[in-house]
């Protein structure tokens, strides 16, 4: 960085923008920020320079320089309104977030800014940076630290009645509890977010996020029809904003269709006008799963899981539901295969279904315990023995009903005799 400063004027900004390479532009912007002038025009030019400088540093992937820029700008923040300070700080943190592989740097940067805002008593900015820090901690799977941070922040924000921030925090809390598999608390936090959102105008992106989280929670409870409607609302919101989350909303819509055994609708949704915009590996993965489900083919299902591992197994939401779908499909196939037999070798079933013998044996024993069919495993002979469905003996229910009726008759006679005696 050069020691000689440049005056904070539009000409200096023009000179920086016309520089031959980004490094030269960055150097000129730093020199503009060193200008000692604090007139309103100079401050406005410096704000513009900070925005341009942070954009250039982001494009050059200089995350550490963005971090040091925030420290360097602290004296400047004392000269401008707090609202503008908040905008600049959040803008620089957003710029760091756009540089790949900077999660740890973002966490340490947010922690530094929280300490600074506490010292400067900038409550508005601190609350937003803390909310951002909690989201970063959740992404890093540091759930307990994120939860501790959020619990204190929620109380403080509720007391101040900052509805917009409250929606963000409640939504984040819902995601955090969902990650910890605490569904009741995740639902309660989401309800709180919806209540706060109903009292104010919520930006479409935020409303889409609420709908997406609602769909995820309903899908977790196996209410796939309601989940589908929420995912559709989220998809419409994100699609209108050209938000990259639109493809995930569409993917989860297709998942819901598959889970309610309407795999035939998947191809129609993908080939619709809205679906064609997002054709790619995410939708191809769901189409492969839908084809496997429609054909009730475990082999095609496993091929889809193998070919689209990143889109299916590495997405925790899809993976959880596809695991239960795989189990259901396996059970249906096994029931269909053993139906003609009264005694059959387990190895023969394994050959028919094209799965390892130990895997088939384990699943059959689980199905017998779950009373999916009546039978037993003869492990000595390596056979499955299937019993006929036991016919329910109607004599016991009939006897109980007769005794019950006799009891009613006796009670009625007792009441009548009591009236006569009276």
What order do the helices and strands come in, and which of them pair?
Layout: H1 10-17, H2 22-33, H3 40-59, H4 63-72, H5 74-77, H6 82-97, H7 103-120, H8 123-139, H9 143-160, H10 163-179, H11 183-198, H12 204-220, H13 224-241, H14 246-259, H15 264-270, H16 273-276, H17 281-294, H18 298-307, H19 309-312, H20 316-338, E1 343-345, H21 346-353, H22 357-369, E2 375-378, E3 383-386, H23 395-421
Antiparallel strand pairs: 1-3, 2-3
Element order, helices and strands? HHHHHHHHHHHHHHHHHHHHEHHEEH
Helix content bin: over 70%
Please tell me the overall pLDDT. 88
How large, in whole angstroms, is the Cα Rg?
A: 32 Å
User: How does the helix and strand content classify structurally?
Assistant: mainly alpha
Q: Major beta sheet, specifics?
A: 3 strands, antiparallel
Low-confidence stretches: none
Count, helices: 23
Secondary structure: number of strands: 3
Calculate the terminal CA-CA distance, rounded to whole Å.
112 Å
Largest beta sheet: strand ordering: 1-3-2
What are the key terms here?
mainly alpha; 422 residues; 23 helices; 3 strands
Gist?
Helix 12 packs antiparallel against helix 13 (224-241) and helix 17 runs antiparallel to helix 18. The chain is elongated.
Describe the structure.
- With 422 residues, the protein is an all-alpha fold.
- Among the domains are: 1-100; 391-421.
- It is 75% helix and 3% strand.
- The protein contains 23 helices and 3 strands.
- It has a 3-stranded antiparallel beta sheet.
- A hairpin with a 4-residue loop joins strand 2 and strand 3.
- Helix 15 packs antiparallel against helix 17.
- The longest helix is centred in the C-terminal third of the chain and has 27 residues, at 395-421.
- The radius of gyration is 32 Å and the shape is elongated.
- The model has no long low-confidence stretch (mean pLDDT 88).
- It holds the Pfam family RPN6_C_helix.
- This is PCI domain-containing protein.
- Belongs to the proteasome subunit S9 family.
- Keywords: Proteasome.
- It comes from Salix dunnii.
């Amino acid at each position: 960085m050069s020691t000689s400063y440049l005056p904070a004027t539009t000409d200096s900004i023009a000179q920086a923008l016309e520089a031959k390479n980004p490094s030269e532009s960055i150097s000129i912007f730093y020199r503009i920020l060193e200008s000692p002038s604090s007139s309103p025009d100079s401050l406005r030019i410096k704000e513009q320079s900070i925005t341009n400088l942070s954009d250039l540093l982001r494009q050059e992937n200089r995350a550490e320089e963005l971090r040091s820029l925030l420290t360097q700008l602290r004296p400047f923040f004392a000269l401008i309104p707090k609202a503008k300070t908040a905008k600049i700080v959040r803008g620089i943190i957003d710029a760091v977030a756009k540089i790949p592989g900077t999660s740890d740097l973002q966490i340490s940067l947010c922690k530094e800014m929280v300490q600074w805002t506490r010292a400067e008593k900038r409550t508005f900015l601190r609350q937003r940076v803390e909310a951002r820090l909690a989201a970063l901690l959740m992404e890093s799977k540091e759930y307990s630290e994120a939860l501790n941070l959020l619990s204190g922040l929620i109380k403080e924000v509720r007391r101040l009645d900052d509805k917009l921030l409250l929606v963000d925090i409640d939504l984040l809390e819902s995601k955090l509890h969902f990650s910890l598999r605490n569904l009741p608390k995740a639902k309660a936090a989401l309800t709180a977010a919806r209540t706060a959102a109903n009292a104010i105008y919520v930006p479409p992106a935020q409303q889409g996020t609420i709908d997406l989280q609602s769909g995820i929670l309903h899908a977790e409870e196996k209410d796939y029809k309601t989940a589908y409607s929420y995912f559709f609302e989220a998809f419409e919101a994100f699609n209108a904003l050209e938000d990259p989350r639109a493809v995930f909303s569409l993917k989860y819509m297709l998942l819901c269709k598959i889970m309610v055994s309407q795999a035939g609708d998947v191809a129609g949704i993908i080939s619709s006008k809205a679906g064609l915009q997002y054709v790619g590996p995410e939708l191809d993965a769901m189409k492969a799963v839908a084809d496997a489900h429609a054909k009730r083919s475990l082999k095609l299902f496993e091929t889809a899981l193998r070919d689209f591992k990143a889109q299916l197994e590495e997405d925790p939401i899809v993976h959880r539901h596809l695991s239960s779908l795989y189990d259901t499909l396996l059970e249906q196939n096994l029931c269909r295969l053993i139906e003609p037999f009264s005694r059959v070798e387990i190895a023969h079933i394994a050959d028919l279904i094209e799965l390892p013998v130990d895997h088939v044996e384990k699943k059959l024993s689980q199905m017998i315990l779950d009373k999916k069919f009546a039978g037993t495993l003869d492990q000595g002979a390596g056979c499955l023995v299937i019993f006929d469905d036991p016919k329910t003996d109607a004599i016991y229910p009939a006897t109980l009903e007769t005794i019950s009726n006799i009891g009613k008759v006796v009670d009625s006679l007792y009441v009548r005799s009591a009236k006569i005696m009276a």
